[in-house]
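Q: I'm teaching a short session on how sequence maps to structure, and I want students to see two examples side by side rather than one. Could you give me a first protein with its sequence written out and its structure tokens following it? Keep the formatting plain so it prints cleanly on a handout.
A: Of course. Example one:
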Amino acid sequence: MATYLDFEQKIKSIKDEIEASIAKSDLHARDILEKDLHKEVEKTFKNLNDYQKLQLARHPDRPYALDYISSILVDCYEIHGDRHFYDDNAIVCFFGYLSGEKVLVIGEEKGRGTKNKLKRNFGMPNPEGYRKALRVAKIAEKFEIPILMLIDTPGAYPGIGAEERGQSEAIARNLFEFSKLKTPTISVVIGEGGSGGALAIGVADRLAMMRYSVFSVISPEGCAAILWNDPSKVESATKAMKITAQDLKDADIIDDIIEEPLIGAHRDKNGATQKLSEYFIEKLREIREDENYLESRYNKLMKLGKFVEF
């Protein structure tokens, strides 16, 4: 069963009517309703506020990393383990072919259904996940294989065990090592990009966001709790934090916005998958055409953040 948010209820109602007209073989009514649906989708999704975009980024029907991987890669195989402690299922690593190009895809996976969510730790990696990502990225570097990273996490796991095993060190190590990998790297926020958990696989030649994704140092709920001690302020926090794709593009934090289907990736997974694939191939070509792409990456990273002296 598809999940509809509060602001999607009119869309759901029209879709239900379309299904009813199809069942009755009333093609004339179906055609009229489909035009109404198109108008309602445009009206709804062209006027989304920041909090509604946050809801879409977290939508349970939105494609996760494994959904994209299964759609864009052929002849793929998964690499497991960090060779130190264990295999963290919140991060997945696959080698395969995308449009004839051999690539490595590293993704943060939230999981569907209670059993799978627990297996994936709700998309919150332990340090072993980040160490696995780095280990596999080094293999890709050795064989000059480009890397696509898919960010989708509420944040790195904050448990005692994770901290004891060096969560902050693992994230910092990835920031350092990914910044100087000698192979093209492209990172895309496909849903929720939370804090250091997202940054750990977010250092790349190109950093992009899907249109209805978010990227922030803390969740709006956490922000509301710290600033106002009031959970009801979450919408105000979302607006104030500037966490949407357009906000971050305007601030030069990200390089590009991937225009997923207007109705959202959660309603058109095939369309979103195609947009992601096209973006990766296009940007990979641009990076390879730059003979000094490592220097370009360094300069891009050094320009992040601004300050003014008084």
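Q: Perfect. Now a second example for contrast.
A: Example two:
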Amino acid sequence: MTRRSRFLSVWLICGLGFLYAPIALVVAMSFNAAPMMTVWSGASLRWYVQLWHSPALMEAAARSLGIAAASATLATLLGGAAGIALARAGAFRGRALFEGLIAVPLVLPDLLIGLALLLLFIALEAVTGWPSGRGVTTIILAHATASLAFVAITVRARLAGLDDTLEQAAADLGATPLIVLRRITLPLIAPALAAGWLLAFTLSLDDVVIASFTGGPGATTLPMVIFSSMRLGPTPVLNALATLILALVAGLLLAAWKIAPVAARGTRD
């Protein structure tokens, strides 16, 4: 058993190293003073300064963060409602179809989702005049559509592991469904909503394919800019940008990790 444990530990370390060593290398090279990726000539912040003075990258980064936040919020609202319906609504007409439609974005390739949404926006513009071309709004709607299924499944799994006794007791004491939702259900699923929002935010910030189909002139996202720049080879500026994105995501995860126990204690109280 000891030899087996050591063997598994070694493989675990090797696997984690294979995953995280490249990320650590990107972070380290973002502080490299040399423009060459293979040469270390001392620590420097020159690439962060150059990134700050790169209007195209900074504008794309700000646009991507705004799109990710907006699409994650919309996906959380719609996906949260869908998850509550699946977990608490019981049997209703069309439930199987509803579950299937929720699960479809999980199995479809991004290429197919992006193409389908592009054709939808073109048809809507031809019939109703909206949207007038593709831009930030269409990307937000597309990202929310693609990620709401992840929120719905997260919320449904959270409610499936919780007893509905508190909700039934509140209803028996005269609480309206809206009060039960606001005072009982939402606090119980707050960690799942936060996790779903973070997941939708990350998926939006990472997407290239769907944004390429549903975006337009003046709506270039940061992943699209990075993908175009990588055709000419990696640069230290991109390393600095990746390090900042990593710090942002790590900060959001740390905040969620800190908030979750507080929310759980508030629910028990």
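Q: What should students look for in example two?
A: Point them to this: Residues 158 and 189 are 6 Å apart (CA to CA). Also worth mentioning: The domain at 54-268 is CATH 1.10.3720.10 (MetI-like fold).
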